[in-house]
Write a structure and sequence with these properties.
Distance between the termini: 60 Å
Number of strands: 3
Order of helices and strands: HEEEHHHH
Largest sheet: 3 strands, antiparallel
Helix content: 40-55%
Number of helices: 5
Length: 151
């Protein structure tokens, strides 16, 4: 026997309200998020904010003094791009629950988002760093050195 319409509507409204609260919590968390990434040559640390905007650049250990302008620019771009990609993936993970259909109310389908269109194709490629180190935002080698990637 099927549930009465009023009961189904009540369940749907309760789930919608819970989803709205979860979206609000996720938005608050994402507004506070930032990621810092070192360039592969460890000369530059770039930090991005919640919308992928560059919020900080640090030139480490005076390595920039021995670099050509092109090398320094490449290090800055590498670190900034990697930090932006980490932020994009963080947003995807945070929003993933809202893309799933409701288990309790089949009529409530999840949102369909084209992440590749929003962030570019890189965001869908498997990240070797994430795969090798779980969901850590900081690579293990930095933990071993006592560096946490953020100031």
């Amino acid at each position: 026997m099927t549930e009465p319409l009023e009961k189904r509507l009540e369940k749907a409204m309760a789930e919608l309200h819970a989803a709205q609260e979860a979206v609000a919590r996720t938005e608050r968390e994402l507004r506070q998020a930032s990621f810092a990434v070192l360039s592969s040559d460890r000369a530059v640390r770039a930090t991005v904010g919640p919308q992928g905007e560059l919020t900080g650049i640090e030139f480490l250990d005076h390595k920039y003094r021995d670099m050509s302008p092109q090398e320094l620019a490449a290090s800055v771009l590498e670190a900034a791009s990697a930090a932006r990609l980490k932020m994009n993936r963080h947003v995807m993970k945070a929003m993933a629950p809202f893309t799933e259909p409701s288990s309790g109310v089949p009529e409530l389908k999840g949102f369909e988002l084209d992440w590749e269109r929003i962030f570019g194709p890189e965001v869908l490629r498997e990240d070797d760093d994430d795969k090798a180190h779980g969901d850590q935002a900081t690579p293990a080698w930095r933990d071993a050195l006592g560096e946490d990637g953020e100031d």
